[in-house]
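Chain A, query sequence.
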Amino acid sequence: MKRIAIFFAEGYEEIEALTVADICRRCGLHVELVSAAEERMVKGSHDIVVQMDKTFSQADFSEYDMLVLPGGMPGTKKLEAQEELMAQIDAFYAEGKYIAAICAAPSIFGHRGILKGRKACCYPSFESHLEGADVTKGPVEISENVITSRGMGTAVDFGLAIAEIFCGREKAEEMAGTIVYR
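Chain A, predicted structure.
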């Protein structure tokens, strides 16, 4: 079974993080909610507190097939400041393993040089941070092992795109119907 880790830092965008977790779990994927720090309870940008499955020190990166970074402020900045997490993002990218980010969080990939020559999208006011990318207005962009999405309004598209990668198009389309999407 494929394993996905979604990283939460205080100030994350709740819908972006939890929609991916919900859709992927419904598809049968193993998803772990991981604190980017050592708190078991992490407060989102709209004061919704969510209990994590693991703290950062408990995460075993060798078990994951994908790392997901939700947006939100100041959550995105806190994720980017977490040096050990950034080292794992770089390692996953270098190994060809999947990394995904939504809203403001694709800016992290831009700052790290990951988006050069790739199609990518993000929240409109962060597009200048997608250094070297072919910036689009699409809801989701998949460029080899790098997935980006624009924001809260594209969270379902983002979650379904991730589900499709690991479960196939048929399962993702079935899930879209099940959740009455489109």
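The helical segments are 14-26, 75-81, 83-95, 106-111, 155-167, 169-178. The longest helix spans residues 14-26.
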